Q: What sequence folds into this?
């Protein structure tokens, strides 16, 4: 049986993105980061909706037009609507941050 | 922000099923149980595929034709194909067991 917290290397020089499941209309990914953030000045602007849950570690997620990032702890989830510009301001440098992201078409 | 581990009552007399997200072709649920199991002799036989991950607690999941249940720990995930008969033999009676289940059409 597979486990979401297995196969995480000690060193994570870049965000690790793995597709767990893909079907008509959606794609489920595991994302692992450790200290990574969206490069300064860059924003994600996606054609699909993204439902995301943080399962380990911690992160700061900022939406355009909001001054402060939302701080995510394990279990926190939210929906990022298509074309809602956002960025990851920070992820915990001291431990892996594990996310599940479900991308789907509007 | 919502959290998968919030809103869990101290007493769980019956499995709690909550739809988190529903879109064309899939439905995402949070399931919380505490000691519940599939009634003796009963099997789930579903028209849709189910990708499931256990996030807290523990459970025994048995597939028809297999003598022993698979023991699931936090982070364990697997795909239950449509019409693959299965049952939950047990869930941890000492703490809530929290699952995410993603049902989708073949």
A:
């Amino acid at each position: 049986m597979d486990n979401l917290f297995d196969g995480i290397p000690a060193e994570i020089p870049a965000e690790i993105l793995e597709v767990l499941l893909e079907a008509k209309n959606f794609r489920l990914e595991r994302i692992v980061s450790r200290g990574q953030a969206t490069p300064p000045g860059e924003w994600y602007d996606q054609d699909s909706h993204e439902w995301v849950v943080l399962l380990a570690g911690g992160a700061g997620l900022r939406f355009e037009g909001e001054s402060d990032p939302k701080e995510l702890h394990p279990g926190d989830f939210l929906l990022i609507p298509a074309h809602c510009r956002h960025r990851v301001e920070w992820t915990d440098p001291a431990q892996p941050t594990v996310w599940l992201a479900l991308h789907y078409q509007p």
